[in-house]
Specification:
Dihydrofolate Reductase, subunit A, homodimer, 198 residues, alpha/beta, globular
């Protein structure tokens, strides 16, 4: 069975986007600060070696994506292919998709909720992990008990404002530390969600 | 020169107290979850060995305390002695202290701000570190450029609500990872504040 894993880069104060996050400024002002750990020093390419390269490879090896509508619309669905491997992208949303989606055969809008979206993604992932992205989607997946693991790339900066990964949840959720990768650029924290609620 | 170090236990979603945090329920409902890492399995004593014991010893070796008024009033000034070593406690507050403080010769209320409180604490610390506690006080110290280091005990739980350590700051603040101690009970993250603003 596929494992669903939230992959998010987060500041120490819990933000995943800076102030002024919108489609013409996705991630907000100087949001790249949260993603430098995964880039080569010139900022032009993803790292392919070292601990950060191995973590980026984990993203690349996922077999399907579940991402929130806000996330996908900020980047127009990554041009239809999240990490260049042709894996399907599922977007839970009650509203019909926007006009560009007709151009993206890998993108499926799922109107009947996060549980259905995750089921479809797991079935499509071919035994590989399902990559989950987006703060709202993460919270709904946690609440619904369909998020299996959380990979946080904790970046040594206080953003001081912006959009939070975790905000308010209806109840406490226990985690288990699976792995800590300690690098100067980020502390990479992998958790299992051990307590999926009722 | 003494180093000021914020020591706080925090959930992965950024909370340092659970809902219903008040003097008759300090830390909120089942707040002890955030502090179990420092306690013996029976919950009766602080750990004195292993990585957690070493981290607790760092608290015990500090030479002065700066703590926020809300924090100290929740626990009535720890009975006048924070960690049983007779070190002075400085409380930045514009209002006069409450009635119990007359009983606590180690407790000094400082009415002229966080910078003054930190200066007095560093002078009193005898070259040892200054322990900083409290979310509001932490934010004011960061803003004023008088917080040198941050020690977060990141506990693998999502509280889902409560009081946050970091909320909104006036600007971005860069940190440097000094040390990561990886244990099943908590990920202990030590940062230097490298960018103290204007």
């Amino acid at each position: 069975m596929a494992t669903s894993v939230l992959f998010m880069s987060m500041s120490v104060d819990g933000y995943i986007a800076a102030p002024n996050d919108r489609p013409d400024n996705p991630g907000g002002d100087d949001f790249i600060r949260l993603h430098e750990w995964g880039l080569t020093p010139d900022g032009q390419d993803f790292r392919t070696s070292g601990p950060a390269g191995e973590l980026m490879a984990e993203v690349g090896s996922t077999g399907a994506v579940v991402a929130g509508r806000r996330t996908v619309e900020q980047v127009d669905h990554w041009g239809g292919d999240h990490h260049g491997r042709g894996v399907p992208i599922f977007v839970p949303s009650h509203r019909p998709p926007g006009p560009t989606v007709v151009n993206y055969p890998l993108v499926t809008y799922v109107s009947d909720g996060i549980v259905s979206a995750m089921e479809q993604a797991k079935a499509a992932a071919g035994g590989r992990d399902v990559l989950v992205q987006g703060a709202y989607t993460a919270r709904r997946a946690i609440e619904a008990g369909v998020l299996d693991e959380i990979q946080i790339h904790l970046v040594p900066v206080l953003f001081g404002g912006g959009r939070r990964l975790f905000d308010v949840l209806p109840s406490r959720v226990e985690l288990e530390v699976l792995r800590v990768v300690d690098t100067p650029e980020a502390t990479h924290l992998r958790y299992r969600v051990t307590d999926k609620g009722a």
